[in-house]
User: Fold these one by one.
Assistant:
Number 1:
Amino acid sequence: MMKDYTDTARLIHSAMERRYACKRFSVEKKISEEDLNLILEAGRLSPSSFGIEHWHFFVTRDKKILDRLYEACFAQENIRTAAALITIGVRTAPAYHPESDFIRSRSERFPGGYPQFVDEYRGYWDFLVQTGSVESWARAQGYIAAANMMTSAASLGIDSCAIEGYKEESVLAILQLPRRDWRVSLLVPLGYRDEPVREKIRMPKESIVTEITL
């Protein structure tokens, strides 16, 4: 059984070694429904703070919409050439209030339901409010889902990029999402590379890992 886990870990590492920030995709090659669903499933299964699953994944394959989003993302070529674009949206701050319908609906799934959940959650909500970090906390959850989807894509031979440069109001308007309800966490264009593969550059483990002991 241990060997099975080791083999799986090696496959994950291989996918992570393959992945890089692809800047241009082939406009000829499409992503199959099966592969796209596997990538989205990696996002759905991702961990999130308090298990709330803050995200919603808005999928775009329409060329006209991609062209508009290209302009809203400062003319980044991977947006316009993507076979599919996943915009990770998260709710605005009021959705995470302990007494909101969103929190009630999410927490009712857990053992003990809403009453038990809210007792543990309320203190953290107060902390988020006091530090002014409710929406930054929500956006950060989208990064977790994005990382898992990009690794999943790489395991399927599909390239990707995490896009943080965008005009949020424009993106929301193009996707017809009301600004009072939504924020953009990340955009993740997907496709098959149409460019030379760039070297993966990372710091050596010894320079970024420090074990702390007493």
Number 2:
Amino acid sequence: MPSFGQADARVLIVGLAPGLRGANRTGRPFTGDFAGDVLYAALAAHGLASGTYRADPADGFTLVDTRVTNAARCVPPENKPTPAEVATCRRFLEDELLTALRPRVVLTLGRIAHESVVRAFGRKLKELPFVHGLVQPVDEVTSLVSSYHTSRYNVQTGLLTPAMVDEVIGTVARLRAAAAG
């Protein structure tokens, strides 16, 4: 699954893997499933996206200085990638993170995405723990923001509320604005 958004974006959002009935069907990350409905509405509300999101890659919806990718590039069995699959796909994630035009803000959606990002940066998990809403400097260039995944399960069980999503995306937007200087 290719990434969505401009390659030199200051914000990179990393999800878990393409959804079977969403991104795998539509060809665009977080498009066509509940998690995308939640994520893209919040991005638009905070100026990180524009246009009307209609869960269709031809909807004209665009990201603003933001790019979306996944820790695993293929739809995983039972909707959960194995550690080996995430490790195999990490080279694609490194290509997104460790470029000359590195993202200034990385938002991870879920623990697996968070841990893969931390490893891609060559850091130890205990140095950058997963805590929802926490902002941590990875290095002198990049800040890491962690969030629970915007999955239907997390929202329906109350692990992640709309207010929590709004707060995290608001934090990302503020960090992006500060990086733009």
Number 3:
Amino acid sequence: MHRKFIAFIVATAITITGVSASQARAADAKDILGGLAAIAIIGAGVHYYNKEKRKNRSTRHQTYTPQPYVAQPSYPVRPLPQHVARYDLPQQCLRTYNAYSNNHPLLAPKCLKKHYKHANSLPQECKVGFWNGNKVKRAYEPACLRQKGYRVVYK
């Protein structure tokens, strides 16, 4: 778009210059025709240049080379700050209890005490009790803990 505009300006300038100069010399018909021929030659050159450029652009194929997939680690590269890491519960403590539900895992309290140093500060309202046939077992409900801001992560 800019090249066409510049070509138009140059052609106009040459035309005006040629006409002004030829009028100053008594306006010969040969001079006017010579100026118009020069403008036509310049215009044809600009047109040819733009045509070749468009042709090369349309025939040139850009090949897509996919970048190899680099898996990002699912754990943070830097250790989390203490006030944030405190809410990360170890995934290894998830257990399924037949007496509670076969497909609904709970967080085992003994495992949490062993692998999570803030186990004593977990909310007690998320602790559920269920009868296993011999005694009442207790464990933490992950959905309740999630609502309180905790998350189960691979450690």
Number 4:
Amino acid sequence: MALSKQELREIAALVEKGAYVKRSTLYVAVGVALLAGLYAGNLLTTVFTHSQQAAVHQQAPAQQVPPQQTGQILDLEEYVQKHPEEHAAWVKLGHLYFDTNQPRPAIRAYEKALQIKPGDADVLTDLGVMYRRDHQHRRAVETFDQAIAADPSHEVSRFNKGIVLYHDLNKKEEAFAAWQDLLRLNPEARTPGGTPVRDMLRQLQGQ
């Protein structure tokens, strides 16, 4: 079902209040695939299997977008053309493209949002995930660094930076450093699957 006029008015109201339609910032897809099954004693080959599966998924054609989300996207595209300065609408549009596996239009929407409200660590992190999904790996790391600079307490950006460095750029020592920085910030940090980051790091360093 497409967005109603009332929902669009609510988006505009959020902007006037200085807020935006916020979602839980997601870990990069490979991190979820990799770490949901990573437990002490697993072989590194298991890690690579999960990573390869994620890479294959990302190279596949874009998934068919459900009619409800298609309608929401079309409504928001029309809305931002009429109201190009409304940060909340651009962020919501980016999230819809994110959730329907359309990285390039998501990147466009998030970049528009950041032009209006620079330094938003959550949006920067989602943008970094989309750069990664679009195989712009170095740019993804740069964007996670921007999120960290904007909010030094931002844990997800630090975690995601490590994932891209480790799996996409093969910079393992830099990845370990990113995760160690996360642990200095929060010694109890956990992966999306619930595994302590400390255990994950210890295992990977021991391979």
